[in-house]
Amino acid sequence: MASVVQRLLTRTIISSSSLPASCRKTRMHICAVLASSHEDPLGIKSRSKSLEEHQKQQMARGLPKKRPVDGVKHVVVVASGKGGVGKSTTSVNLALGMLASKQSLRVGLLDADIYGPSIPKMMNLRGQPELTKENMMKPLVNFGVPCMSMGFLVEEGAPIVWRGLMVMSAVEKLIRQVAWGELDVLVIDMPPGTGDTQLSISQLIPISGAVIVTTPQDIALLDACRGTEMFRKVDVPVIGLIQNMSHY
């Protein structure tokens, strides 16, 4: 891809040396974006070439096989049919509630909303994750909850303009290439809707249950029903429905 982009750029009528500095910077940025691959959108190489070969073989065979997240006993996803119903707030409260329970569960929080990550702000976290010797990302921790989000990997306020393949690859890396440690529960804050992210996660890892968040409005309830039906089709049990803002 990079070589193709380079050939296209060298065939332009106006050379880069004759362009203003601002245009040259824009040209370099476009080149970098075009040269990126959906196979590694986060810029983190796989731990081994054998793993890459294994992934290619699985892609050739069809759907990926479900494999548990290393060190994680249970995965609970928090989903909604619409945005703005309080799904991320519910995810944070659920994680902190389980941490404060009598069982003192070890809980992690994954923000799977690639386009609109909210967990960094809600958990009062900022900065970029460090890498371990095994090239795994270390989750950022606050209130005793390890967290990972796309918001840690881009500048605050920067838009994510990706196609579905890059989103799916990024979600897999946020799940597989994070050093979660030993967790009783990993809470995943899903994006709204029933798209690529929901399907990818349901195919990649076993999910213990889904919590659906909605509001009392008829349209929101219709979308919540669609989300519930989606989880039924991928054999994920719905363990509860939260009607948020029902007293307003």
Automatic annotation (TrEMBL):
Concerning CDD domains, the annotation shows:
Mrp_NBP35
Q: Which family does it belong to?
A: Belongs to the Mrp/NBP35 ATP-binding proteins family.
Q: Which PROSITE patterns match?
A: MRP
* PANTHER family from the UniProt entry: IRON-SULFUR PROTEIN NUBPL (PTHR42961)
Alphabetically sorted, this entry's keywords are: 4Fe-4S, ATP-binding, Iron, Iron-sulfur, Metal-binding, Nucleotide-binding
Task: Give the UniProt entry's GO cellular component terms.
Answer: mitochondrion
* Superkingdom of source: Eukaryota
Tell me any Pfam family this protein matches: ParA
Tagged with keyword ATP-binding: yes
List this protein's GO terms for biological process.
iron-sulfur cluster assembly; mitochondrial respiratory chain complex I assembly
Matching InterPro entries: Mrp-like_CS, Mrp/NBP35_ATP-bd, NUBPL-like, P-loop_NTPase, YlxH/NBP35
One Gene Ontology molecular-function label: ATP binding
Designated name of the protein: Uncharacterized protein
Claim: Disulfide bond is one of the keywords in the record: no
> What is the organism of origin for this protein?
Pocillopora damicornis
